[in-house]
From TrEMBL:
GO terms for molecular function: DNA binding. It comes from the Bacteria. It comes from Aquipluma nitroreducens. This is Transcription elongation factor GreA/GreB C-terminal domain-containing protein. One of its GO terms (biological process) is regulation of DNA-templated transcription elongation. Residues 1-68 form the Transcription elongation factor GreA/GreB C-terminal domain.
Amino acid sequence: MNSFVELQRNNAEAPFTIKLVLPEYENIKENRISIFSALGAAIFSEKTGTKVVYRTWKNENHIKITDVIFQPEANGNYYVNKHDYGYF
């Protein structure tokens, strides 16, 4: 959680960045995506370069993880802090 991930849809659009968060901190307008959402669950624990398919109510989506910009656990931070949420 609190990971910043760069994604790209179908290699046709410019990449965009999201932050994976707990459900209570989700805010779509600010690109904070719950780890329990369809997209969050699909990319959770995946690596850079992975192509992921996830389903929503209307369709099946294909997305590629172009970069894992920041992952707290990779930097030795294994604790969730409420102040980690809210801002990019």
